[in-house]
């Protein structure tokens, strides 16, 4: 039984009375789904939209739209590993007047994610440790931390030390939402990447000339596997696309078309995925 006071247990979440598009960001096994499940359980006004369960990004988008139309807040539970992937959700949010955009980055070290994969016994799409490690390496090589020009309103960085237990009480979820709400795009809360690069681990590389935020020591060399931020094509309709003019038209759709990229829960099987 959780030792929660009646006052704290009954407190509404700080986003009460408004809608927010909550985008979770992190490697596989970084803790996103554990949090998302607890969030939906303790605060049902947030709806978990999980790509592993639904099967592909299109179905996640459909559920996000449905959630916003119902006056609820989507929690996008997928890796969202770069600016392009996150722009799908900012674009959808901007179609609903008054909807804020919030980001929680699960800034979990590569080695911690790898250790958790070794102990994982069931997953909707990853069937064994070897497969999981292969997926983890691919995501880690392409991972890019969020930048303020992506158009979010709130951002929070969470490390494993912020929540060492495998489950969340209502008060713990409430505390995270309060920290998130208090943050801004230029001054997020939590352990920001610029203060915690050293904990990321031994998959480190560092470029002084053209740095791209990522899991290779916080910054990695831009390449075919890890595009520089300036080379991203943002989805038409996203706040970043409208404010910077970046991107190119994709017909009538406000969302970039799906290719052999990370659109389904098993995108990494395709040789064109990278």
Main beta sheet: 6 strands, parallel
Which stretches are low in confidence, meaning pLDDT under 50 for 5 or more residues running?
1-7, 194-274
- Helical segment count: 9
Structural class: alpha/beta
Mean pLDDT across every amino acid position: 74
Q: What is the first-to-last residue Cα distance? A: 46 Å
Beta-strand portion reads: 5-15%
Strand element count:
8
State the order of secondary-structure elements, H for helix, E for strand. Answer: HEHEHHEHEHHEHEEEH
Strand order of the largest sheet: 2-3-1-4-5-6
Question: How would you characterize the overall build of this protein?
Answer:
This protein is 31% helix and 13% strand. The N and C termini lie far apart (46 Å). It is built from 9 helices and 8 strands. A 6-stranded parallel sheet has the order 2-3-1-4-5-6, sandwiched between helices. Strands 7-8 form a two-stranded antiparallel ribbon. By secondary structure, the protein is an alpha/beta fold. It has helices spanning 6-9, 32-42, 51-54, 57-69, 83-93, 110-119, 129-142, 170-182, 239-244; strands at 20-25, 46-50, 73-77, 100-106, 154-158, 189-190, 212-214, 218-220. Strand 7 (212-214) and strand 8 (218-220) form a beta hairpin.
Quick recap:
With 274 residues, this protein is an alpha/beta fold. It has helices at residues 6-9, 32-42, 51-54, 57-69, 83-93, 110-119, 129-142, 170-182, 239-244; strands spanning 20-25, 46-50, 73-77, 100-106, 154-158, 189-190, 212-214, 218-220.
SSE arrangement:
Blueprint: H1 6-9, E1 20-25, H2 32-42, E2 46-50, H3 51-54, H4 57-69, E3 73-77, H5 83-93, E4 100-106, H6 110-119, H7 129-142, E5 154-158, H8 170-182, E6 189-190, E7 212-214, E8 218-220, H9 239-244
Helix pairs in contact: 4-5, 6-7
């Amino acid at each position: 039984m959780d030792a929660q006071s009646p006052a704290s247990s009954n407190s509404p979440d700080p986003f009460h009375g408004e809608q927010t598009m909550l985008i979770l960001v992190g490697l596989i096994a970084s803790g996103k789904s554990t949090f998302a499940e607890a969030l939906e359980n303790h605060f049902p006004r947030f709806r978990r939209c999980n790509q592993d369960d639904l099967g592909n990004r299109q179905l996640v988008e459909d559920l996000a739209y449905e959630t916003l139309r119902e006056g609820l807040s989507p929690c996008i539970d997928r890796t969202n590993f770069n600016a392009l992937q996150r722009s799908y959700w900012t674009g959808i949010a901007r179609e609903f007047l008054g909807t804020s955009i919030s980001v929680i980055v699960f800034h979990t070290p590569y080695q911690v994610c790898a250790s958790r994969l070794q102990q994982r016994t069931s997953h909707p799409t990853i069937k064994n440790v070897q497969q999981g490690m292969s997926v983890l390496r691919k995501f880690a090589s392409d991972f890019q931390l969020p930048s303020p020009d992506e158009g979010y309103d709130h951002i929070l960085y969470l490390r494993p030390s912020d929540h060492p237990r495998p489950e969340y009480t209502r008060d713990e979820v409430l505390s995270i939402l309060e920290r998130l709400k208090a943050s801004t795009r230029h001054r997020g809360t939590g352990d920001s990447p610029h203060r915690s690069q050293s904990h990321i681990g031994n998959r480190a590389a560092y470029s002084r000339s053209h740095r791209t935020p990522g899991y290779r020591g916080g910054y990695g060399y831009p390449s075919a596997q890890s595009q520089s931020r300036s080379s991203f094509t943002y989805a038409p309709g996203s706040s970043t696309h409208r404010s910077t003019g970046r991107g190119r038209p994709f017909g009538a759709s406000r969302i970039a078309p799906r290719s052999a990229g990370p659109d389904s829960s098993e995108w990494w099987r395709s040789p064109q995925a990278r």
